[in-house]
Specification:
Chain A has helices at 11-23, 45-50, 55-58, 65-68, 130-139, 153-163, 185-197, 240-244, 289-303, 372-380, 390-395, 404-411; strands spanning 3-7, 28-33, 71-75, 79-83, 88-91, 96-98, 101-104, 108-110, 124-125, 145-149, 168-173, 201-204, 208-212, 215-218, 223-225, 228-231, 235-237, 266-268, 275-276, 283-284, 316-321, 324-330, 339-346, 349-356, 359-366. Chain A is α/β, with parallel strands linked by helices. Chain A has three domains: 3-109 and 236-303, FAD/NAD(P)-binding domain; 118-233, FAD/NAD(P)-binding domain (3-Layer(bba) Sandwich); 331-411, no CATH class. Chain B is α+β, with helices and mostly antiparallel strands. The chains are: A alpha/beta, B alpha+beta. The complex binds flavin-adenine dinucleotide.
Chain lengths: 415, 147
Protein backbone atom coordinates (compact mmCIF):
# COMPACT_ATOMS: atom_id res chain seq x y z
CA UNK A 1 0.00 0.00 0.00
CA UNK A 2 1.32 3.38 -1.01
CA UNK A 3 2.14 5.99 1.63
CA UNK A 4 1.26 9.57 0.83
CA UNK A 5 2.31 12.62 2.79
CA UNK A 6 0.56 15.95 2.33
CA UNK A 7 2.17 18.99 3.98
CA UNK A 8 -0.34 21.77 4.61
CA UNK A 9 -4.10 21.47 5.05
CA UNK A 10 -5.10 24.52 3.04
CA UNK A 11 -6.99 24.41 -0.24
CA UNK A 12 -4.09 22.87 -2.17
CA UNK A 13 -3.67 20.15 0.46
CA UNK A 14 -7.38 19.32 0.53
CA UNK A 15 -7.59 19.08 -3.26
CA UNK A 16 -4.44 16.99 -3.28
CA UNK A 17 -6.12 14.51 -0.95
CA UNK A 18 -9.20 14.44 -3.20
CA UNK A 19 -6.94 13.93 -6.21
CA UNK A 20 -5.17 10.99 -4.56
CA UNK A 21 -8.44 9.39 -3.56
CA UNK A 22 -9.88 9.75 -7.06
CA UNK A 23 -7.17 7.30 -8.20
CA UNK A 24 -6.22 5.30 -5.11
CA UNK A 25 -8.97 4.54 -2.60
CA UNK A 26 -6.72 2.48 -0.32
CA UNK A 27 -3.31 4.13 0.09
CA UNK A 28 -2.32 5.60 3.43
CA UNK A 29 -2.58 9.38 3.53
CA UNK A 30 -1.00 11.44 6.28
CA UNK A 31 -1.59 15.16 6.50
CA UNK A 32 0.72 17.36 8.54
CA UNK A 33 -0.49 20.91 9.07
CA UNK A 34 1.34 23.56 11.07
CA UNK A 35 -1.88 25.43 11.71
CA UNK A 36 -4.20 24.10 14.37
CA UNK A 37 -7.04 24.61 11.88
CA UNK A 38 -7.24 23.22 8.37
CA UNK A 39 -9.84 22.48 5.73
CA UNK A 40 -11.20 26.02 5.67
CA UNK A 41 -11.28 28.67 2.97
CA UNK A 42 -8.58 31.12 3.98
CA UNK A 43 -10.33 34.02 2.22
CA UNK A 44 -13.25 33.55 4.61
CA UNK A 45 -11.38 34.91 7.62
CA UNK A 46 -12.53 38.47 6.86
CA UNK A 47 -16.13 37.28 6.56
CA UNK A 48 -15.73 35.51 9.89
CA UNK A 49 -14.42 38.67 11.52
CA UNK A 50 -17.29 40.59 9.98
CA UNK A 51 -19.78 38.07 11.35
CA UNK A 52 -20.92 37.09 7.84
CA UNK A 53 -20.03 33.43 8.37
CA UNK A 54 -19.18 31.18 11.30
CA UNK A 55 -16.75 28.38 11.99
CA UNK A 56 -19.27 25.68 11.11
CA UNK A 57 -19.97 27.16 7.70
CA UNK A 58 -16.27 27.80 7.12
CA UNK A 59 -15.47 24.11 6.97
CA UNK A 60 -14.47 23.75 3.33
CA UNK A 61 -15.25 20.07 2.81
CA UNK A 62 -17.15 19.33 6.00
CA UNK A 63 -16.03 18.21 9.44
CA UNK A 64 -15.88 14.54 8.45
CA UNK A 65 -13.58 15.08 5.47
CA UNK A 66 -10.50 13.38 6.92
CA UNK A 67 -12.45 10.48 8.31
CA UNK A 68 -14.34 9.95 5.06
CA UNK A 69 -11.13 10.03 3.08
CA UNK A 70 -9.13 7.84 5.46
CA UNK A 71 -6.61 10.55 6.26
CA UNK A 72 -4.64 10.62 9.48
CA UNK A 73 -4.30 14.32 10.15
CA UNK A 74 -1.67 15.82 12.43
CA UNK A 75 -2.29 19.44 13.37
CA UNK A 76 -0.12 22.02 15.11
CA UNK A 77 3.06 20.30 13.99
CA UNK A 78 5.22 21.34 11.06
CA UNK A 79 7.53 19.49 8.73
CA UNK A 80 11.02 20.87 9.25
CA UNK A 81 13.09 18.85 6.79
CA UNK A 82 12.71 16.59 3.79
CA UNK A 83 15.14 13.86 2.89
CA UNK A 84 14.42 12.76 -0.68
CA UNK A 85 17.12 10.05 -0.49
CA UNK A 86 15.60 8.10 2.37
CA UNK A 87 12.09 9.35 1.52
CA UNK A 88 11.41 10.64 5.00
CA UNK A 89 10.15 13.87 6.47
CA UNK A 90 11.22 15.25 9.84
CA UNK A 91 8.54 16.85 11.99
CA UNK A 92 8.93 19.63 14.55
CA UNK A 93 8.03 17.17 17.33
CA UNK A 94 10.94 14.94 16.33
CA UNK A 95 8.87 12.29 14.52
CA UNK A 96 10.16 10.80 11.28
CA UNK A 97 7.56 10.09 8.62
CA UNK A 98 8.32 7.81 5.69
CA UNK A 99 6.60 8.45 2.37
CA UNK A 100 6.39 7.14 -1.17
CA UNK A 101 5.22 10.42 -2.65
CA UNK A 102 4.61 13.72 -0.94
CA UNK A 103 3.07 17.07 -1.72
CA UNK A 104 4.36 20.37 -0.39
CA UNK A 105 1.24 22.56 -0.05
CA UNK A 106 2.66 24.98 2.46
CA UNK A 107 1.12 28.20 1.14
CA UNK A 108 2.65 31.49 2.09
CA UNK A 109 3.49 33.48 5.22
CA UNK A 110 2.93 37.13 6.00
CA UNK A 111 5.90 39.27 5.16
CA UNK A 112 6.81 41.69 7.93
CA UNK A 113 9.75 43.91 6.99
CA UNK A 114 11.95 45.30 9.75
CA UNK A 115 10.23 48.43 11.11
CA UNK A 116 11.73 50.54 13.85
CA UNK A 117 10.07 50.01 17.20
CA UNK A 118 7.66 47.32 15.97
CA UNK A 119 8.46 45.27 19.06
CA UNK A 120 7.14 48.06 21.28
CA UNK A 121 3.63 47.50 19.89
CA UNK A 122 1.66 45.29 22.24
CA UNK A 123 -1.39 44.52 20.14
CA UNK A 124 0.15 43.44 16.87
CA UNK A 125 -1.52 41.14 14.32
CA UNK A 126 -1.16 39.53 10.93
CA UNK A 127 -4.21 38.59 8.89
CA UNK A 128 -3.59 35.20 7.35
CA UNK A 129 -5.19 32.55 9.51
CA UNK A 130 -8.41 31.78 11.29
CA UNK A 131 -6.41 32.10 14.51
CA UNK A 132 -5.48 35.66 13.48
CA UNK A 133 -9.14 36.46 12.85
CA UNK A 134 -10.19 34.99 16.22
CA UNK A 135 -7.47 36.99 17.98
CA UNK A 136 -8.58 40.21 16.31
CA UNK A 137 -12.20 39.46 17.13
CA UNK A 138 -11.21 39.04 20.78
CA UNK A 139 -9.13 42.20 20.86
CA UNK A 140 -11.35 44.64 18.99
CA UNK A 141 -14.05 46.73 20.61
CA UNK A 142 -16.22 49.61 19.48
CA UNK A 143 -13.65 52.06 20.81
CA UNK A 144 -10.60 50.42 19.26
CA UNK A 145 -8.46 52.54 17.01
CA UNK A 146 -7.02 50.27 14.33
CA UNK A 147 -4.02 50.92 12.15
CA UNK A 148 -3.60 48.65 9.14
CA UNK A 149 -0.28 48.73 7.32
CA UNK A 150 -1.02 47.69 3.73
CA UNK A 151 -3.86 48.75 1.45
CA UNK A 152 -3.80 45.63 -0.70
CA UNK A 153 -6.44 42.94 -0.85
CA UNK A 154 -5.64 41.44 2.55
CA UNK A 155 -5.39 44.82 4.30
CA UNK A 156 -8.69 46.02 2.89
CA UNK A 157 -10.51 42.75 3.57
CA UNK A 158 -9.23 43.01 7.13
CA UNK A 159 -10.56 46.57 7.31
CA UNK A 160 -13.94 45.32 6.10
CA UNK A 161 -14.03 42.64 8.78
CA UNK A 162 -13.05 45.08 11.52
CA UNK A 163 -15.54 47.68 10.30
CA UNK A 164 -18.31 45.58 11.79
CA UNK A 165 -16.71 46.26 15.20
CA UNK A 166 -15.18 49.72 15.05
CA UNK A 167 -15.29 52.78 12.82
CA UNK A 168 -11.82 54.02 13.79
CA UNK A 169 -9.75 52.46 11.05
CA UNK A 170 -6.71 53.91 9.31
CA UNK A 171 -5.10 52.18 6.34
CA UNK A 172 -1.58 53.13 5.30
CA UNK A 173 0.08 52.17 2.03
CA UNK A 174 3.37 53.14 0.51
CA UNK A 175 1.79 53.12 -2.96
CA UNK A 176 -0.12 56.22 -4.05
CA UNK A 177 -3.30 54.12 -4.36
CA UNK A 178 -5.04 51.21 -2.68
CA UNK A 179 -5.11 47.79 -4.37
CA UNK A 180 -2.16 48.89 -6.48
CA UNK A 181 -1.46 45.37 -7.72
CA UNK A 182 -4.92 44.86 -9.23
CA UNK A 183 -6.31 48.34 -10.01
CA UNK A 184 -5.21 51.39 -11.94
CA UNK A 185 -5.25 54.90 -10.45
CA UNK A 186 -8.66 55.83 -11.87
CA UNK A 187 -10.38 52.69 -10.59
CA UNK A 188 -8.49 52.81 -7.30
CA UNK A 189 -9.78 56.33 -6.76
CA UNK A 190 -13.36 55.05 -6.89
CA UNK A 191 -12.50 52.56 -4.14
CA UNK A 192 -10.72 55.23 -2.12
CA UNK A 193 -13.66 57.59 -2.34
CA UNK A 194 -15.94 54.77 -1.26
CA UNK A 195 -13.75 53.87 1.72
CA UNK A 196 -13.40 57.48 2.82
CA UNK A 197 -17.18 57.91 2.57
CA UNK A 198 -17.50 54.98 4.94
CA UNK A 199 -15.22 56.78 7.36
CA UNK A 200 -12.04 54.83 6.80
CA UNK A 201 -8.95 57.00 6.96
CA UNK A 202 -6.45 56.42 4.14
CA UNK A 203 -2.83 57.50 4.28
CA UNK A 204 -1.45 56.81 0.83
CA UNK A 205 2.08 57.26 -0.45
CA UNK A 206 3.12 57.06 3.17
CA UNK A 207 4.56 54.48 5.52
CA UNK A 208 5.34 54.02 9.17
CA UNK A 209 8.84 55.21 9.99
CA UNK A 210 8.74 54.27 13.61
CA UNK A 211 6.48 52.76 16.24
CA UNK A 212 6.43 53.93 19.85
CA UNK A 213 4.02 51.73 21.74
CA UNK A 214 0.62 52.88 20.53
CA UNK A 215 1.91 55.66 18.29
CA UNK A 216 3.09 55.36 14.70
CA UNK A 217 5.19 58.11 13.22
CA UNK A 218 4.80 58.28 9.48
CA UNK A 219 7.36 59.26 6.86
CA UNK A 220 5.20 62.27 6.10
CA UNK A 221 5.46 63.35 9.72
CA UNK A 222 1.87 62.41 10.48
CA UNK A 223 1.33 60.66 13.81
CA UNK A 224 -1.30 57.95 14.18
CA UNK A 225 -2.44 56.85 17.64
CA UNK A 226 -3.81 53.32 17.66
CA UNK A 227 -4.80 50.42 19.88
CA UNK A 228 -4.47 47.56 17.40
CA UNK A 229 -1.92 47.22 14.64
CA UNK A 230 -2.36 44.90 11.65
CA UNK A 231 0.60 44.36 9.35
CA UNK A 232 -0.66 43.23 5.95
CA UNK A 233 2.13 44.27 3.63
CA UNK A 234 2.42 41.11 1.63
CA UNK A 235 3.07 37.40 1.69
CA UNK A 236 6.02 35.21 0.79
CA UNK A 237 5.74 31.64 -0.50
CA UNK A 238 6.90 28.98 1.96
CA UNK A 239 9.56 27.34 -0.17
CA UNK A 240 12.22 26.45 2.42
CA UNK A 241 11.48 22.71 2.64
CA UNK A 242 12.13 22.16 -1.06
CA UNK A 243 15.00 24.63 -1.29
CA UNK A 244 16.88 23.08 1.62
CA UNK A 245 16.40 19.62 0.16
CA UNK A 246 18.10 20.85 -3.01
CA UNK A 247 15.00 21.37 -5.16
CA UNK A 248 14.63 24.13 -7.71
CA UNK A 249 13.02 27.27 -6.34
CA UNK A 250 12.50 30.57 -8.16
CA UNK A 251 10.02 33.02 -6.78
CA UNK A 252 8.08 29.95 -5.76
CA UNK A 253 8.73 26.23 -5.89
CA UNK A 254 9.32 25.23 -9.52
CA UNK A 255 7.26 22.31 -10.81
CA UNK A 256 6.48 20.71 -14.13
CA UNK A 257 2.94 20.58 -15.52
CA UNK A 258 2.28 17.44 -13.44
CA UNK A 259 3.15 19.53 -10.36
CA UNK A 260 6.27 17.52 -9.63
CA UNK A 261 9.24 19.45 -8.25
CA UNK A 262 12.79 18.86 -9.42
CA UNK A 263 13.09 16.35 -6.56
CA UNK A 264 12.01 12.72 -7.07
CA UNK A 265 8.61 11.80 -5.60
CA UNK A 266 8.07 15.32 -4.31
CA UNK A 267 5.20 17.38 -5.68
CA UNK A 268 4.09 20.89 -4.79
CA UNK A 269 0.88 22.89 -5.20
CA UNK A 270 -0.74 26.18 -4.29
CA UNK A 271 0.63 29.51 -3.09
CA UNK A 272 4.10 28.07 -2.44
CA UNK A 273 4.66 27.31 -6.14
CA UNK A 274 5.19 29.37 -9.21
CA UNK A 275 3.19 28.79 -12.34
CA UNK A 276 2.83 29.99 -15.89
CA UNK A 277 0.77 33.08 -16.53
CA UNK A 278 -1.27 32.15 -19.62
CA UNK A 279 -1.35 35.75 -20.89
CA UNK A 280 2.28 36.77 -20.41
CA UNK A 281 3.81 33.29 -20.57
CA UNK A 282 5.96 34.33 -17.61
CA UNK A 283 6.55 32.21 -14.51
CA UNK A 284 5.32 33.75 -11.29
CA UNK A 285 3.41 33.14 -8.11
CA UNK A 286 -0.35 33.19 -8.71
CA UNK A 287 -1.43 33.21 -5.10
CA UNK A 288 -5.14 32.71 -5.59
CA UNK A 289 -7.42 29.99 -4.41
CA UNK A 290 -8.59 28.61 -7.80
CA UNK A 291 -4.95 27.94 -8.67
CA UNK A 292 -4.33 26.17 -5.40
CA UNK A 293 -7.32 23.90 -5.96
CA UNK A 294 -6.45 22.97 -9.54
CA UNK A 295 -2.78 22.43 -8.78
CA UNK A 296 -3.55 20.44 -5.65
CA UNK A 297 -5.84 18.07 -7.51
CA UNK A 298 -3.34 17.67 -10.34
CA UNK A 299 -0.56 16.86 -7.87
CA UNK A 300 -2.73 14.33 -6.04
CA UNK A 301 -3.76 12.47 -9.19
CA UNK A 302 -0.16 12.19 -10.36
CA UNK A 303 1.11 11.17 -6.92
CA UNK A 304 -1.29 8.26 -7.01
CA UNK A 305 -0.17 7.16 -10.47
CA UNK A 306 -2.87 8.87 -12.52
CA UNK A 307 -2.31 11.38 -15.29
CA UNK A 308 -3.23 15.04 -14.99
CA UNK A 309 -1.66 18.32 -15.99
CA UNK A 310 -2.05 21.92 -14.98
CA UNK A 311 -1.10 24.33 -17.72
CA UNK A 312 -1.11 27.68 -15.98
CA UNK A 313 -3.52 30.35 -14.91
CA UNK A 314 -4.20 34.05 -14.81
CA UNK A 315 -4.35 36.43 -11.90
CA UNK A 316 -7.99 37.14 -11.11
CA UNK A 317 -10.04 38.38 -8.24
CA UNK A 318 -13.59 39.04 -7.22
CA UNK A 319 -13.81 41.10 -4.09
CA UNK A 320 -16.46 43.08 -2.30
CA UNK A 321 -15.37 45.87 -0.03
CA UNK A 322 -18.06 47.41 2.16
CA UNK A 323 -20.70 47.13 -0.55
CA UNK A 324 -18.54 47.97 -3.56
CA UNK A 325 -17.74 44.95 -5.69
CA UNK A 326 -14.70 44.73 -7.95
CA UNK A 327 -13.64 42.07 -10.41
CA UNK A 328 -10.26 42.00 -12.08
CA UNK A 329 -8.44 39.51 -14.27
CA UNK A 330 -5.40 39.10 -16.44
CA UNK A 331 -2.82 41.67 -17.44
CA UNK A 332 -3.33 45.32 -18.26
CA UNK A 333 -1.73 46.72 -21.39
CA UNK A 334 -2.37 50.32 -22.25
CA UNK A 335 -1.42 52.17 -25.44
CA UNK A 336 2.13 52.70 -24.21
CA UNK A 337 2.74 49.01 -23.70
CA UNK A 338 1.40 48.12 -27.12
CA UNK A 339 -2.20 47.45 -26.13
CA UNK A 340 -5.60 48.94 -26.81
CA UNK A 341 -8.12 49.56 -24.08
CA UNK A 342 -11.89 49.78 -24.17
CA UNK A 343 -13.74 51.76 -21.58
CA UNK A 344 -17.46 51.72 -20.76
CA UNK A 345 -19.54 53.37 -18.11
CA UNK A 346 -21.95 50.78 -16.80
CA UNK A 347 -24.87 50.80 -14.43
CA UNK A 348 -23.42 52.11 -11.19
CA UNK A 349 -19.92 51.54 -12.36
CA UNK A 350 -17.12 51.11 -14.72
CA UNK A 351 -15.71 48.59 -17.14
CA UNK A 352 -12.27 48.62 -18.67
CA UNK A 353 -11.04 45.92 -21.02
CA UNK A 354 -7.46 45.51 -22.13
CA UNK A 355 -6.43 43.95 -25.42
CA UNK A 356 -3.11 43.21 -27.04
CA UNK A 357 -2.08 41.44 -30.23
CA UNK A 358 -5.66 40.53 -31.06
CA UNK A 359 -6.56 39.04 -27.67
CA UNK A 360 -8.39 40.16 -24.58
CA UNK A 361 -5.70 40.21 -21.90
CA UNK A 362 -7.42 41.66 -18.84
CA UNK A 363 -10.27 43.64 -17.34
CA UNK A 364 -11.40 45.72 -14.41
CA UNK A 365 -15.11 45.74 -13.57
CA UNK A 366 -17.03 47.65 -10.96
CA UNK A 367 -20.78 47.86 -10.65
CA UNK A 368 -22.32 45.55 -13.25
CA UNK A 369 -20.54 42.23 -12.88
CA UNK A 370 -23.01 40.01 -14.64
CA UNK A 371 -21.53 37.36 -16.92
CA UNK A 372 -17.96 38.52 -16.25
CA UNK A 373 -16.88 34.90 -16.70
CA UNK A 374 -17.43 35.25 -20.46
CA UNK A 375 -14.53 37.72 -20.44
CA UNK A 376 -12.42 35.57 -18.14
CA UNK A 377 -12.88 32.61 -20.49
CA UNK A 378 -11.84 34.74 -23.48
CA UNK A 379 -8.61 35.57 -21.66
CA UNK A 380 -7.91 32.08 -20.39
CA UNK A 381 -8.69 30.40 -23.70
CA UNK A 382 -6.73 33.05 -25.64
CA UNK A 383 -9.69 33.39 -28.00
CA UNK A 384 -8.67 35.47 -31.04
CA UNK A 385 -10.73 38.65 -31.12
CA UNK A 386 -11.12 38.46 -34.89
CA UNK A 387 -13.05 35.21 -34.47
CA UNK A 388 -16.07 37.10 -33.14
CA UNK A 389 -17.80 40.46 -32.97
CA UNK A 390 -15.74 41.36 -29.95
CA UNK A 391 -16.97 44.91 -29.54
CA UNK A 392 -20.49 43.57 -29.09
CA UNK A 393 -19.23 41.28 -26.31
CA UNK A 394 -17.26 44.08 -24.75
CA UNK A 395 -20.36 46.21 -24.62
CA UNK A 396 -22.62 43.46 -23.33
CA UNK A 397 -21.20 40.06 -22.39
CA UNK A 398 -23.27 37.26 -23.95
CA UNK A 399 -22.67 34.25 -26.17
CA UNK A 400 -24.47 35.79 -29.17
CA UNK A 401 -21.38 37.35 -30.79
CA UNK A 402 -19.53 34.03 -30.61
CA UNK A 403 -21.78 32.58 -33.30
CA UNK A 404 -24.08 29.63 -33.70
CA UNK A 405 -21.42 26.94 -34.08
CA UNK A 406 -19.77 28.02 -30.83
CA UNK A 407 -23.10 27.96 -29.02
CA UNK A 408 -23.99 24.57 -30.45
CA UNK A 409 -20.83 23.16 -28.97
CA UNK A 410 -21.00 24.96 -25.63
CA UNK A 411 -24.74 24.87 -25.00
CA UNK A 412 -25.90 21.94 -27.14
CA UNK A 413 -24.14 19.05 -25.44
CA UNK A 414 -22.27 17.94 -22.36
CA UNK A 415 -19.37 20.19 -21.43
CA UNK B 1 -26.71 12.77 -16.76
CA UNK B 2 -29.86 14.64 -17.77
CA UNK B 3 -29.33 18.36 -18.25
CA UNK B 4 -31.34 21.31 -19.52
CA UNK B 5 -30.73 22.09 -23.20
CA UNK B 6 -32.24 24.81 -25.33
CA UNK B 7 -32.95 24.23 -29.00
CA UNK B 8 -32.10 27.67 -30.27
CA UNK B 9 -34.16 27.32 -33.45
CA UNK B 10 -37.35 26.78 -31.43
CA UNK B 11 -36.86 29.51 -28.84
CA UNK B 12 -39.41 32.33 -29.19
CA UNK B 13 -37.71 34.60 -26.67
CA UNK B 14 -40.95 34.79 -24.70
CA UNK B 15 -39.11 34.83 -21.35
CA UNK B 16 -41.67 32.43 -19.81
CA UNK B 17 -38.79 30.21 -18.66
CA UNK B 18 -37.46 33.09 -16.59
CA UNK B 19 -40.84 33.57 -14.89
CA UNK B 20 -41.37 29.86 -14.34
CA UNK B 21 -37.90 29.58 -12.87
CA UNK B 22 -38.34 32.53 -10.53
CA UNK B 23 -41.72 31.14 -9.42
CA UNK B 24 -40.44 27.60 -8.92
CA UNK B 25 -37.67 28.90 -6.69
CA UNK B 26 -39.78 31.44 -4.80
CA UNK B 27 -41.29 28.95 -2.37
CA UNK B 28 -44.70 30.56 -3.01
CA UNK B 29 -47.83 28.82 -4.23
CA UNK B 30 -49.34 31.67 -6.21
CA UNK B 31 -47.45 32.84 -9.27
CA UNK B 32 -48.84 36.36 -9.38
CA UNK B 33 -48.12 36.87 -5.69
CA UNK B 34 -44.62 35.46 -6.10
CA UNK B 35 -43.63 37.59 -9.08
CA UNK B 36 -45.68 40.77 -9.41
CA UNK B 37 -43.74 43.92 -8.70
CA UNK B 38 -40.75 41.94 -7.47
CA UNK B 39 -37.18 41.99 -8.75
CA UNK B 40 -36.77 38.56 -10.27
CA UNK B 41 -33.66 36.44 -10.01
CA UNK B 42 -34.25 33.76 -12.62
CA UNK B 43 -31.55 31.13 -12.90
CA UNK B 44 -32.24 30.78 -16.61
CA UNK B 45 -31.90 33.82 -18.79
CA UNK B 46 -32.76 34.77 -22.36
CA UNK B 47 -30.02 36.24 -24.52
CA UNK B 48 -31.32 38.03 -27.59
CA UNK B 49 -30.27 40.64 -30.12
CA UNK B 50 -33.30 40.94 -32.40
CA UNK B 51 -32.13 38.16 -34.71
CA UNK B 52 -31.12 35.39 -32.34
CA UNK B 53 -32.62 34.33 -29.05
CA UNK B 54 -32.09 31.42 -26.71
CA UNK B 55 -32.03 30.71 -22.99
CA UNK B 56 -28.90 29.99 -20.95
CA UNK B 57 -28.69 28.25 -17.59
CA UNK B 58 -26.02 26.30 -15.72
CA UNK B 59 -24.39 23.67 -17.95
CA UNK B 60 -23.62 21.46 -14.95
CA UNK B 61 -20.13 21.00 -16.41
CA UNK B 62 -18.39 17.71 -15.74
CA UNK B 63 -15.32 19.61 -14.48
CA UNK B 64 -16.79 22.91 -13.33
CA UNK B 65 -14.55 25.94 -12.90
CA UNK B 66 -17.00 27.48 -10.42
CA UNK B 67 -16.67 24.53 -8.02
CA UNK B 68 -12.89 24.57 -8.26
CA UNK B 69 -12.78 28.33 -7.70
CA UNK B 70 -15.31 28.59 -4.85
CA UNK B 71 -13.56 30.09 -1.83
CA UNK B 72 -15.98 28.69 0.73
CA UNK B 73 -16.78 25.21 -0.53
CA UNK B 74 -20.41 26.30 -1.02
CA UNK B 75 -20.44 24.97 -4.57
CA UNK B 76 -20.23 21.23 -4.96
CA UNK B 77 -21.26 18.44 -7.28
CA UNK B 78 -24.13 16.29 -6.04
CA UNK B 79 -24.91 13.33 -8.31
CA UNK B 80 -23.56 15.27 -11.27
CA UNK B 81 -25.49 18.47 -10.57
CA UNK B 82 -23.63 21.60 -9.50
CA UNK B 83 -25.32 22.74 -6.29
CA UNK B 84 -24.89 25.72 -4.00
CA UNK B 85 -25.16 25.86 -0.24
CA UNK B 86 -26.58 29.31 0.48
CA UNK B 87 -25.54 29.12 4.13
CA UNK B 88 -21.90 28.61 3.24
CA UNK B 89 -21.79 31.07 0.35
CA UNK B 90 -20.42 34.49 1.38
CA UNK B 91 -21.26 36.18 -1.93
CA UNK B 92 -17.69 36.80 -3.13
CA UNK B 93 -18.94 36.07 -6.67
CA UNK B 94 -15.77 34.32 -7.79
CA UNK B 95 -18.13 31.85 -9.51
CA UNK B 96 -19.57 34.74 -11.56
CA UNK B 97 -16.01 35.72 -12.44
CA UNK B 98 -15.15 32.26 -13.78
CA UNK B 99 -18.31 30.79 -15.34
CA UNK B 100 -17.64 30.81 -19.11
CA UNK B 101 -21.38 30.75 -19.83
CA UNK B 102 -22.44 33.64 -17.63
CA UNK B 103 -24.77 31.19 -15.92
CA UNK B 104 -24.14 32.13 -12.29
CA UNK B 105 -25.45 35.46 -11.05
CA UNK B 106 -25.59 37.49 -7.85
CA UNK B 107 -28.76 36.42 -6.03
CA UNK B 108 -31.25 38.15 -3.74
CA UNK B 109 -29.85 36.83 -0.44
CA UNK B 110 -26.26 37.94 -0.98
CA UNK B 111 -25.30 34.47 -2.16
CA UNK B 112 -24.71 33.48 -5.75
CA UNK B 113 -27.69 32.10 -7.62
CA UNK B 114 -27.68 29.29 -10.17
CA UNK B 115 -29.82 26.55 -11.69
CA UNK B 116 -30.01 23.42 -9.58
CA UNK B 117 -32.34 21.65 -12.03
CA UNK B 118 -35.29 22.22 -9.64
CA UNK B 119 -34.04 19.22 -7.69
CA UNK B 120 -34.15 21.17 -4.44
CA UNK B 121 -37.48 22.96 -4.81
CA UNK B 122 -40.96 21.50 -4.82
CA UNK B 123 -41.01 21.03 -8.62
CA UNK B 124 -38.61 18.13 -8.65
CA UNK B 125 -38.02 18.60 -12.39
CA UNK B 126 -36.93 21.73 -14.28
CA UNK B 127 -39.82 24.20 -14.36
CA UNK B 128 -38.37 25.99 -17.39
CA UNK B 129 -38.73 22.79 -19.43
CA UNK B 130 -42.23 22.02 -18.26
CA UNK B 131 -43.47 25.52 -19.03
CA UNK B 132 -41.79 26.17 -22.37
CA UNK B 133 -44.68 26.75 -24.81
CA UNK B 134 -42.68 25.77 -27.88
CA UNK B 135 -40.88 22.76 -26.48
CA UNK B 136 -37.60 24.54 -27.07
CA UNK B 137 -36.18 23.66 -23.67
CA UNK B 138 -35.59 19.99 -22.99
CA UNK B 139 -34.28 17.92 -20.09
CA UNK B 140 -32.35 14.99 -21.50
CA UNK B 141 -29.05 13.17 -21.74
CA UNK B 142 -26.69 14.31 -24.44
CA UNK B 143 -23.13 13.63 -25.42
CA UNK B 144 -20.48 16.29 -25.94
CA UNK B 145 -20.75 18.04 -29.31
CA UNK B 146 -17.61 17.33 -31.31
CA UNK B 147 -16.06 20.12 -33.35
C1 LIG C 1 -7.53 37.57 3.92
C2 LIG C 1 -7.30 36.81 2.66
C3 LIG C 1 -8.22 36.93 1.62
C4 LIG C 1 -8.06 36.23 0.44
N1 LIG C 1 -9.00 36.36 -0.53
C5 LIG C 1 -8.89 35.65 -1.66
C6 LIG C 1 -9.92 35.71 -2.65
O1 LIG C 1 -10.91 36.42 -2.52
N2 LIG C 1 -9.77 34.95 -3.77
C7 LIG C 1 -8.70 34.13 -3.95
O2 LIG C 1 -8.63 33.46 -4.96
N3 LIG C 1 -7.71 34.04 -3.03
C8 LIG C 1 -7.79 34.78 -1.89
N4 LIG C 1 -6.79 34.68 -0.94
C9 LIG C 1 -5.65 33.79 -1.21
C10 LIG C 1 -6.00 32.35 -0.88
O3 LIG C 1 -6.37 32.27 0.44
C11 LIG C 1 -4.83 31.44 -1.18
O4 LIG C 1 -4.51 31.51 -2.54
C12 LIG C 1 -5.09 29.99 -0.82
O5 LIG C 1 -5.47 29.85 0.51
C13 LIG C 1 -3.86 29.13 -1.09
O6 LIG C 1 -4.03 27.84 -0.59
P1 LIG C 1 -2.78 26.92 -0.22
O7 LIG C 1 -3.36 25.62 0.14
O8 LIG C 1 -1.77 26.99 -1.30
O9 LIG C 1 -2.10 27.62 1.02
P2 LIG C 1 -2.66 27.97 2.52
O10 LIG C 1 -4.12 28.12 2.42
O11 LIG C 1 -1.85 29.09 2.91
O12 LIG C 1 -2.33 26.66 3.31
C14 LIG C 1 -1.02 26.28 3.66
C15 LIG C 1 -1.02 25.51 4.95
O13 LIG C 1 0.24 24.88 5.11
C16 LIG C 1 0.64 24.98 6.47
N5 LIG C 1 2.11 24.88 6.51
C17 LIG C 1 3.01 25.78 6.08
N6 LIG C 1 4.27 25.33 6.28
C18 LIG C 1 4.15 24.11 6.84
C19 LIG C 1 5.09 23.12 7.28
N7 LIG C 1 6.41 23.29 7.14
N8 LIG C 1 4.64 21.99 7.82
C20 LIG C 1 3.30 21.77 7.94
N9 LIG C 1 2.37 22.66 7.55
C21 LIG C 1 2.79 23.82 7.00
C22 LIG C 1 0.11 26.32 6.89
O14 LIG C 1 -0.01 26.38 8.30
C23 LIG C 1 -1.24 26.36 6.19
O15 LIG C 1 -2.24 25.81 6.96
C24 LIG C 1 -6.93 35.38 0.27
C25 LIG C 1 -6.00 35.26 1.29
C26 LIG C 1 -6.17 35.96 2.48
C27 LIG C 1 -5.17 35.80 3.57
Amino acid sequence: MKQYLVIGGGIAGIHCIEGIRSVDPDGQITLVCAEADSNYGRPLISYYLEGATDEGNMSYRGEDFYEKNGVSAIHGVSVTKLDPESKTAVLSDGQLLPYDTLCVATGSSPFVPPMAGLETVEQRFSFMTLADARALEQAVSEESRVLIIGGGLIGLKCAEGLYAHTRNITVVDLAPHVLSSILQPESAQIVEEHLREKGIELLLGDSAKEFQGSRAIMNSGAVVEFDLLVVAIGVRPNTALVKEAGGEVGRGIVTDARMQTSLPNIYAAGDCTESRNIVTDAQGVLAILPNASMQGRTAGINMAGGEATYDGGIPMNSMGILGLHIMTAGSYYDEESGGKTYFYETEGGYKKLFTKDGHLTGFILMGDLNRAGIYTAMIRERRPLDSLDFEAVFENPSLIPFGRAFRKQKLGGEV
Amino acid sequence: MKRVYVNEQWCLGCHLCEYNCAFANSGETDMAFALRGKTLYPKIRIEEDGKVCYAVSCRHCTDPLCVKSCISGALSIEDGAVCIDHEKCVGCLTCVLVCPYGAVAPGPDGAASKCELCLKNSCGAPACVEGCPNGAIVFEEREAVMT
